[in-house]
């Protein structure tokens, strides 16, 4: 089981980025996937989540209305579309998967596998 996050970069405030989480060794469509982020000097926080069966999505309050998580089963990839980015969105973003039921999607301990992060920097 491997996850590879990509798509980070430098963007101006108000700009957009799309992060990708490519899965290998398993079918991502059958498992819950979440995005987390960690900013310098801050704790890791859950950003968004897509459930394994019905595809329900959840978001942190700080990103609601700006970020959208989606899944492409054909590509075995989960995306995080980030619009209207703000400087406070600057962080390393990670994707993670859980092989069993997730009770609290925003808690890192719920997840079994993590990908390497991708850095998002929002700055003018």
Describe the structure.
With 124 residues, the chain is mostly beta strands. It contains no helices and eleven strands. It has strands spanning 2-6, 9-11, 17-24, 32-38, 45-50, 57-59, 67-72, 77-82, 91-98, 113-114, 118-122. Strands 2, 4, 5, 6, 9, 10 and 11 form a seven-stranded mixed sheet that branches. It is globular, with a radius of gyration of 13 Å. The mean pLDDT is 94.
Layout of secondary structure:
Elements: E1 2-6, E2 9-11, E3 17-24, E4 32-38, E5 45-50, E6 57-59, E7 67-72, E8 77-82, E9 91-98, E10 113-114, E11 118-122
Parallel strand pairs: 2-11
Antiparallel strand pairs: 1-3, 3-8, 4-5, 4-9, 5-6, 7-8, 9-10, 9-11
Largest sheet: 7 strands, mixed
Rg from Cα: 13 Å
Helix content: under 10%
- Regions with little confidence, pLDDT below 50 for 5+ residues: none
Shape: globular
Give me the oligomer status.
Answer: single chain
Number of strands: 11
Structural class by SSE content:
mainly beta
Number of helices: 0
> What is the helix/strand order?
EEEEEEEEEEE
């Amino acid at each position: 089981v491997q996850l590879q996050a990509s798509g980070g970069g430098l963007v101006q405030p108000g700009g957009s980025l799309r992060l990708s989480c490519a899965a290998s060794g398993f079918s991502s469509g059958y498992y819950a996937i979440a995005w987390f982020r960690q900013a310098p000097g801050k704790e890791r926080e859950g950003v968004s989540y897509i459930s394994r069966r019905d595809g329900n999505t959840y978001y942190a309050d700080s990103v609601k209305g700006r970020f959208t998580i989606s899944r492409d089963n054909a590509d075995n990839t989960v995306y995080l579309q980030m619009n209207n980015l703000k400087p406070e969105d600057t962080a390393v973003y990670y994707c993670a998967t859980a092989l069993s039921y997730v009770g609290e999607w925003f808690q890192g301990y719920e997840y079994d596998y993590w990908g390497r992060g991708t850095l998002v920097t929002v700055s003018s």
